[in-house]
Design brief:
By secondary structure, the chain is an alpha/beta fold. It is built from 13 helices and 10 strands. Bound molecules: indole-3-glycerol phosphate (IGP). The site of indole-3-glycerol phosphate has 15 residues, from strand 10 and helix 12. GO terms for molecular function: indole-3-glycerol-phosphate synthase activity; phosphoribosylanthranilate isomerase activity.
């Protein structure tokens, strides 16, 4: 049966084919070489965790989602980026997928230009061409969703990210994906592994996902708890499970005062 993730993968492949037809690998690499230098996404998270002893925040700029519809009408990426930065975020995540999240490539570029924080391009990568494209847009980190790629493609995306000086957040949702992620980063000391508490197929959210998978996360990997975090109690719960960073969108995007909400979540 075709579910949300399968539908996203299908339109992404079409979209990437069209983009590649318009901009060759050589051309996209030329743009990537012109981009402002990577800011060190994983390093910023590790530094913040070391300083505070508490999980570092990756704050997400997200207008809408397939599970929640419109999340924030008053949507100005540079203004939101600055509010997150003042509120204490260590990094940003910016949705660039249009069809499902009402994102845009320009949101990433504009948000990043407004702050000093490293930025994750939050999109669905199905082709190595998108890695250089992400760098060309200014991304400091890409997302590798294990449920969307086979092992060979995951390895290619990770190698390509490293070649461009970017980090890669390797996202898992179950034990099989975590085992594959561990295999993927075997021998590396720079792994960034995420546990998405939300299923991208059913949209069900359960913070126990982080608790269950944390123990399987490879030694030395920096563990990111993703999705469904609303309160300082939620933060404490995933911190106890071993998360050194948090990826939070909706609960902050729904607040009128994003800076105050960011501060309150981290308090
Ligand atoms: O809005 P939330 O529940 O705080 O979740 C943020 C982030 O984890 C979520 O947007 C996300 C995690 N992995 C993804 C992959 C694709 C799109 C979106 C996501």
């Amino acid at each position: 049966m075709s579910d949300v993730l399968d539908r996203i993968a299908a339109y992404k492949r079409e979209d990437v084919a069209a983009r590649k037809a318009a901009v060759s690998q050589d051309a996209v690499e030329a743009r990537a070489r012109e981009a402002s230098a990577p800011r060190g996404f994983r390093a910023a998270l590790a530094r913040r965790f070391a300083e505070t002893g508490r999980p570092a925040l990756i704050a997400e700029i997200k207008k809408a989602s397939p599970s929640k519809g419109l999340i924030r009408a008053d949507f100005d990426p540079p203004v939101l980026a600055q509010a997150y930065e003042r509120g204490g975020a260590a990094c940003l995540s910016v949705l660039t997928d249009g069809p499902s999240f009402q994102g845009d490539d320009a949101y990433l570029t504009a948000a990043r230009a407004a702050v000093a924080l490293p930025c994750l391009r939050k999109d669905f990568l199905v082709d190595p061409w998108q890695v250089a494209e992400s760098r060309a847009l200014g991304a400091d980190c890409i997302l590798i969703i294990m449920d969307m790629v086979d092992d060979a493609l995951a390895a290619e995306l990770l190698t390509e990210a490293t070649r461009w000086g970017m980090d890669a957040l390797i996202e898992t949702h179950d034990a099989d994906e975590m085992a594959r992620a561990a295999q993927l980063v075997d021998g590396r000391d720079d792994a960034l592994i995420g546990v998405n508490n939300r299923s991208l197929r059913t949209f069900e959210v359960d913070l126990a996902t982080t608790e269950q998978l944390a123990a399987m996360s490879p030694a030395g990997a920096l563990l990111v708890a993703e999705s469904g975090l609303f309160t300082p109690e939620d933060v404490a719960r995933v911190a106890d499970a071993g998360a050194r960073a948090l990826l939070v969108g909706e609960s902050l995007m729904r607040q009128a005062d994003v800076e105050a909400a960011t501060r309150a979540l981290l308090a």
